[in-house]
Design a protein that fits this description.
Largest sheet: 8 strands, mixed
Number of helices: 18
Shape: globular
Helix content: 25-40%
């Protein structure tokens, strides 16, 4: 098949995740697809690794709809196994090596993987020993493949997929021929910050529908180089950065985990053009002296989500924007909709970027509803509901939870609180579960956090609620000060009193050198609440 003919076919029929790996291997075989430290992989090499892994998984007996579990930090095998599983119509699930044995065990019992791919170790934790424990308890795990140093008697991932398996060629072609855009291919477990994690199922269609608009919003292309350091269980790694880069033909610059100093060094060294992070990550980078020393000339787009941007972060990024012309973009999304479904627009003011999360993307409908799921009027706060091809098929093994979150008309009810103005711009007001009543009044923590972060000496703030005998609930504020800043509790409380009603003013302020983070980079409010006194 000639190059031009092959390109036309791929452009016309590319409806499955792995189609885009093949597309870029055909069109730009020698371009970089993944950078991981000293290791560099071209699109041709990535396509070859995906095909070898797909044949190896078939050889292990992985059937359509079965699960392939991956326990590791971000590394090239993440994308390789994800695309290979999709190519044989299996379901891929990523798990962070930071999870406890109990957390991982619960998830594996829920998804019952046929194959478990694991890193050999994480810091001082022997992940191979843990994997053996899981396999003893779960008969569904037929094979463990080890990335790194495989102990004697264990199967080395690289050695295993290096075998040609020519007898699997026909089987692979059959799987590819029978694949449907509506096959479930990705399983992501919610962070569990408010309870037991739920397994969210996505199809080729829901993922591609999402990244099609993200690619446009971020202006991602084959010339882009995007930083990825989120854990592989997170929608940012799996879809918003990882798969969106595959879809766009961009190069993924991977780090095993988020580290402010390492991220800044990599941005400059590798000429990163798109940086997507949660605000806490930007704030930690800003505290590093290198933030004001490195060149930001390569970066074309800064994007964030997960929480509102503090004033200090917006000011710092706006200073870079003024020098380089970089775009500043935020939006709203969720694991259940595969990532962002709203985006702000290039050139939006700092006020807009700090307050709103933009307009719905083209294929999605968004409405705000009351407790009875009836639409509310413009400007009224209610629950954010989303409908469109990006919505998950449901929660794994949880028909009751699925029915609770989705209605027969296709609306997904997010439990996020928001309001929309007359121009269709969405503003968030926190999670429904985070709203609290104090003395009979409804209070949204994000409003208090916004006021705290507007103080020039405050880098970041997180508000949690604690029980109170008189008012039922009150809030405590946990604050990270700007470097070298002098700030007293009284000064910050007075600042709040000037902007907030008396019942919204924190009853206690605790200063921290840094705030505890979840693996996804968000502030761990459960830990802050547990430590409240």
């Amino acid at each position: 098949m000639g190059f031009a003919h092959g390109k036309r076919i791929m452009d016309k029929y590319a409806k499955l995740l792995w189609h885009y790996v093949d597309k870029w291997a055909l069109e730009r075989p020698d371009a970089e697809a993944i950078v991981f430290g000293a290791h560099r992989m071209t699109w041709a090499q990535l396509a070859d690794a995906v095909n070898r892994t797909a044949r190896a998984l078939i050889a292990l007996g992985v059937k359509k709809g079965e699960c392939v579990a991956f326990i590791s930090n971000p590394r090239p095998e993440f994308i390789i196994t994800f695309m290979a599983a999709a190519k044989i119509s299996a379901i891929w699930v990523g798990l962070s090596p930071r999870f406890s044995i109990q957390e991982t065990n619960r998830i594996l019992r829920d998804c019952r993987p046929a194959v478990l791919v694991t890193q050999d170790k994480y810091e001082r934790v022997n992940l191979v020993e843990r994997a053996l424990t899981y396999s003893f308890e779960l008969a569904c795990i037929r094979e463990i493949l080890v990335i790194g140093k495989a102990p004697r008697g264990m199967v080395d991932f690289d050695a295993f997929i290096s075998k040609p398996y020519p007898e699997m060629d026909a089987a692979l072609e059959q799987r590819k021929a029978k694949a449907s855009p509506e096959d479930e291919v990705l399983l992501m477990f919610t962070s569990g910050s408010s309870g037991f994690p739920k397994g969210v199922l996505h199809t080729h269609t829901s993922i591609i529908s999402n990244v099609r608009w993200e690619k446009r919003a971020l202006k991602m292309s084959g010339e882009s180089r995007i930083l990825l350091h989120f854990p592989v269980n997170h929608v940012a790694a799996d879809v918003e950065i990882g798969y969106c880069a595959v879809y766009a033909g961009a190069c993924i610059v991977m780090l095993e985990s988020f580290d402010a100093a390492k991220a800044l060094e990599t941005i400059e060294k590798e000429g990163v053009t798109i940086i997507g992070q949660v605000p806490a990550m930007f704030m930690l980078e800003m505290r590093n002296p290198a933030f004001n020393k490195i060149s930001w000339d390569s970066v074309k787009t800064f994007v964030w989500g997960g929480s509102a941007a503090p004033r200090a972060m917006l000011t710092a990024l706006d200073t870079i924007r003024a020098k380089t012309g970089a775009r500043l973009i935020t939006g709203y999304g969720a694991t259940e909709v595969g990532g962002f479904v709203t985006f702000t627009r290039p050139g939006d003011s700092l006020a807009a970027l700090g307050k709103s999360v933009g307009h719905p993307c083209g294929q999605c409908e968004i409405r705000i509803v009351d407790e009875h799921r009836n639409p509310v009027t413009t400007g009224v706060i209610g629950e954010v509901a989303v409908r469109g091809p990006v919505v998950m098929t449901g929660y794994l093994n949880s028909p009751a939870l699925t029915a609770e979150a989705m209605d027969e008309e296709g609306w997904f009810y997010s439990k996020d609180l928001g309001s929309m103005d007359g121009q269709g711009v969405l503003t968030l007001h926190g999670r429904h579960s985070e709203m609290f009543k104090t003395g009979g009044e409804n209070v949204f923590p994000c409003e208090i956090e916004s006021v705290l972060e507007s103080h020039p000496a405050v880098l970041y703030a997180a508000v949690v609620t604690v029980s109170d005998e008189v008012f039922d609930e009150v809030c405590h504020a946990h604050v990270m000060k700007a470097p070298s800043a002098e700030l007293s509790t009284k000064e910050l409380l007075d600042w709040c009193k000037n902007s907030l009603s008396y019942f919204k003013v924190p009853k206690k302020i605790v200063f921290h050198p840094s705030l505890p983070l979840l693996p996804n980079g968000k502030v761990d409010k459960i830990k802050l609440r547990e430590n409240a006194t």
